[in-house]
Amino acid sequence: MASFFDRNRKALIAKGIAPERLPPGQYSTDRFPVLHVGDVPDYGDLSNWSLTIGGATERQMVLSWAEILDLPQVETVVDIHCVTKWSKFDTAWRGVAMETIFELVGVLPEANFLIEHAEGGYTTNVPLHRIRGNDDQGRPRAFIGHTFDGEPLDPEHGYPLRMVIPELYFWKSAKWLRGLELSVGDQPGFWERNGYHNEGDPFLEQRFG
Fold it and tell me: What is 65-133 written as a DSSP string?
């Protein structure tokens, strides 16, 4: 009898979706499951919300919500993959490419990692080489997203702003983003310190360290 994963891949083919887009050990879903630790923050009218960017940069910056929206915006469609084994195809986003942020602050040559700081002290770490530039289809390899499927992010999915790194498991895309720190050395985050893999490539099944 065919396994659930085999049936799921056959269903993708029937939909005209290339099965190689689905990483090993994953299943496709049309849902957008909610997974997080702690309470969902309430930022009110965003007048006191800000995003701090610094570390190994030429300039340290604190951007308001209005300043985020004034930056050049990108619209892109990408697949996303969660370490809990679901994948969602062709998700539509609007936000700011990380290269725009990097140009704004000036990344120093010695910077090797991006540390994402989210509400409540949560962090996750990403090697810079995984998120610089565009992918082979010309899409930004990483961006800060505020609009999903034409609507502002739901609070449970990171409103008003989250990181989106399609090439890595989605825990690397921190919700409720409040800070971006360019770092010379690595700083493993919450899940990385608690057994998850340090890089998290879904096509290599880098779930656990």
Answer: HHHHHHS--EEEEEEEE-TTSEEEEEEEEEEEEHHHHHHHH-B-TT--EEEEEEGGG-EEEEEGGGTSS
Phi-psi region of 9 (alpha: psi -120 to 50; beta: other; left: phi over 0): alpha
CA dihedral 120→125→130→131, nearest 10 degrees, is 30
CA pseudo-torsion sign 81, 118, 49, 70:
negative
First and final C-alpha spacing in the chain: 32
Classified as helix, coil or strand, 190 is helix
Question: Quick check: 168 pLDDT over 80?
Answer: yes
Query: Which one, of 113, 103, 132, lies nearest residue 199 by Cα?
Result: 113
- The tokens describing 62, both together, are 């604190």
pLDDT in tens, 71-117: 999 999 999 999 999 999 999 999 999 999 999 999 999 999 999 99
**Of all residues in the chain, what percent carry a pLDDT higher than 90?**
87
Alpha-carbon gap, residue 50 to 166, rounded angstroms? 24
Model confidence, pTM: 0.95
Q: Which helix (H) or strand (E) holds 51?
A: strand 50-55
